[in-house]
Write a structure and sequence with these properties.
The structure holds 2 protein chains of 2 kinds. Chain A is of the alpha+beta class. In chain A, 53% of the residues lie in helices and 16% in strands. Chain A has helices at residues 2-6, 12-40, 62-65, 75-82, 148-160, 168-171, 207-217, 237-246, 253-297, 299-307, 312-351, 362-391; strands at 53-58, 87-92, 94-95, 99-104, 112-115, 118-120, 141-147, 176-182, 185-197, 203-204, 227-232, 249-251. In chain A, α9 (253-297) runs parallel beside α12 (362-391) and α11 (312-351) packs antiparallel against α12 (362-391). By secondary structure, chain B is an alpha/beta fold. Chain B has a 5-stranded parallel β-sheet with strand order 4-5-6-1-7, sandwiched between helices. A two-stranded antiparallel sheet of chain B has the order 2-3. In chain B, α3 runs parallel beside α5.
């Protein structure tokens, strides 16, 4: 009976508009937060969409062709890059300063031997995580990481000569022989491919092997750094572009593309998040206004109820339970809608090459819960204050 | 002294601006011509207005210092009021109006309430909207609403203004029975009519 009196003047049309607005805002918020958090983990553990690690080198200019330009990095330049706010880490890519050749004698495959050049990078910046990526003198096998581009090229070569193509798994079973020489000395090692990289265009060797080779088999010339590995913050593509321009750097196109995509994704989701917050704010205002209009229209009823002995808390609790029901339904509906959108969106993103984690990001639901509690709390306090004022209405 | 009545000239025997005491169980007549503050008295003593100077004590406590909880308890159990403007819900039936009050705590069953309505001759209006009753019938509903709650004081602001003599007598009898049952008192504001009742005190505004 009490609720019948208090909600006598409820305007369903007005409420419907406020509810739809709030529902849209809630769903936007859930989507934005969920995908914002999920996109942070985009590519983690995935070789193709690796973390924001890029390889930079100097742009080749006409001066380089005339040996008038410089394509190396000095320590001061490396430190300068390290000091940039969006740069997490900068490490030089170490090149071999000794002669090295790779040969293979495997049954069923043509014998080959070729001079190669190898590189080493710090383990944490590698896009391939290999358990056995350590080496010390005396080890039976030297692990190698091949560039994936090399395998593609090799298979194209094989196909054109009618030779069976080699899969990555098969390549990892081959026995290779590495010969190194320099300073009048030479040594050979058995080697095996333990992984494939999308980042580096050269064969990677463990840093311990590189240091061993450069120390014993090279002259005493100081090392030349021609490439750097940069690890940057998410969404820093724009800043990176300006630094590249300023320092005349060149970065592999597909790495740049990935960084750009992640930046754009972050920006878009940030905008959606902002829009959803505005939508929720406006809808919450609408609902607050709706309840205030309702109270205003029921002024006589509320005043009379208070005068005949109803406690303001009893009346405001009736509104509180109404708000809890209303927002409870909105909360559940928005999660269900979000679940449906997520199902289709995840499928679309996965098929477009952006596989995101399948689980719900609980941050989004936690934040939505907090927002709902704040809206209910604010409404409740306003209503309570209005009721207390009504007692003294004359 | 209520602030709006400060500038008005009052009779020498007006209670405004004076000290007086009303004791438990007394039957008080408050006489006043129009505009002297009968409804103001009702509003102030029931905590609906606090625009006055001076002090009003209820059970030795200054009513301006009573909390919201205390006032709610007083309105539910200690002071019943028949407002001059009735304060009924016109869109709701007699039954709904009375049950809204009944929900706050009443010793009467629905049947007993209907019997009280029967004594006042409006039991047939039980399911009728209050808004379509005559003013006199509405006054009787307002009287019953006040009587169905427990009280120590019943404050009545011109409760019989639209009742004929016969109905006034019946209503007054019912009020006196109910008040005596609880050993309570009542305060009746009037334009001068005593309604044939014996009052313990007669005060003027």
């Amino acid at each position: 009976m009490l609720k019948q009196v208090l909600f006598r003047y409820a305007n369903r049309k007005q409420l419907f508009v406020a509810v739809i607005g709030t529902l849209i805002g809630f769903v936007f918020l859930l989507c934005a937060i969920h995908y914002f958090v999920a996109s942070r983990s985009l590519g983690e553990g995935n070789e193709i969409l690796g973390g924001n690690v890029l390889i930079a080198q100097r742009k080749v200019s006409k001066f380089d062709a005339l040996s008038l330009g410089t394509n190396t990095f000095e320590q001061a330049e490396i430190e300068k890059l390290r000091s940039l706010s969006f740069v997490k880490n900068v490490e030089p890519v170490i090149n071999n300063r000794f002669n090295i050749s790779l040969g293979m004698k495997e049954q069923g495959l043509p014998y080959f031997r070729t001079d190669v050049f190898v590189q080493s990078v710090k383990d944490e910046l590698m896009d391939v995580k290999v358990d056995s990526w350590k080496w010390k003198s005396g080890d039976e096998v030297l692990p190698l990481v091949m560039p994936r581009d090399f395998m593609i090229m090799l298979n194209q070569f094989a196909a054109s000569y009618g030779i069976p193509q080699v899969s990555e798994d098969l390549a990892m079973t081959f026995n290779f022989r590495i010969d190194i020489s320099g300073n009048g000395k030479k040594e050979h090692f058995n080697a095996r491919v333990v992984g494939f990289s999308n980042q580096i265009s050269a064969i990677l060797v463990p840093i311990e092997f590189m240091e061993y080779g450069n120390e014993i088999y090279s002259d005493d010339e100081p090392p030349i750094i021609t490439q750097l590995m940069l690890s940057i913050e998410d969404g820093a593509y724009g800043l990176l572009e300006s630094v590249m321009e300023e320092q005349n750097l060149d970065i592999k196109k597909n790495e740049l593309t990935i960084a750009k995509v992640k930046s754009i994704l972050s920006a878009v989701l940030g905008v959606i998040l902002f829009v959803s917050v505005i939508t929720i704010f406006l809808s919450a205002l609408l609902i607050m206004q709706y309840t205030q209009i309702l109270i205003s229209k029921s002024d006589y009823e509320i005043t009379t109820l208070l005068r005949i002995g109803y406690h303001p808390n009893v009346l405001s609790n009736a509104f509180l339970s109404y708000l809890i029901k209303l927002f409870g339904i909105l909360f559940i509906l928005s999660i269900l809608l979000f679940g449906v959108i997520k199902f289709f969106l995840d499928q679309f993103l996965s098929s477009s090459g952006f596989p995101l984690p399948n689980e719900f990001e609980w941050y989004s639901i936690a934040i939505l819960t907090l927002i709902v509690c704040v809206i209910i709390g604010l409404n409740y306090n306003t209503i309570k204050r209005l009721f207390i004022q009504r007692i003294y209405n004359t | 002294m209520p602030y709006p009545l400060k500038e008005i000239a009052h009779h020498a025997d007006s209670i405004w601006g004076k000290t007086f005491e009303l004791n438990h169980g007394q039957k008080v007549l408050l006489n006043a011509s129009s505009g002297k503050g009968k409804s103001t008295f009702t509003s102030i003593t029931t905590g609906l207005r606090n625009d006055y100077s001076g002090e009003i004590l209820f059970n030795d406590k200054n009513i301006q210092q009573l909390s919201l909880d205390e006032w709610t308890t007083i309105r539910q159990k200690k002071i019943a009021v028949i407002f001059q403007d009735l304060q009924l819900f016109p869109s709701y039936t007699v039954r709904e109006n009375l049950l809204l009050k009944h929900a706050l705590g009443s010793p009467f069953s629905e049947m007993e309430i209907i019997q009280m309505l029967e004594r006042l001759g409006i039991d047939d209006k039980w399911n009728q909207q209050c808004g379509i009753l005559s003013y006199g019938q509405q006054q009787r509903v307002a009287i019953i609403r006040a009587l169905i709650q427990p009280y120590e004081w019943l404050i009545m602001d011109e409760p019989f203004s639209h009742l004929d003599e016969a109905n006034t007598k019946i209503a007054l009898k019912l009020i006196q029975e109910r008040t005596d049952d609880q050993q309570a008192g009542f305060i009746l504001t009037s334009l001068g009519d005593k309604y044939g009742c014996n009052f313990t005190i007669e005060l003027n505004l």
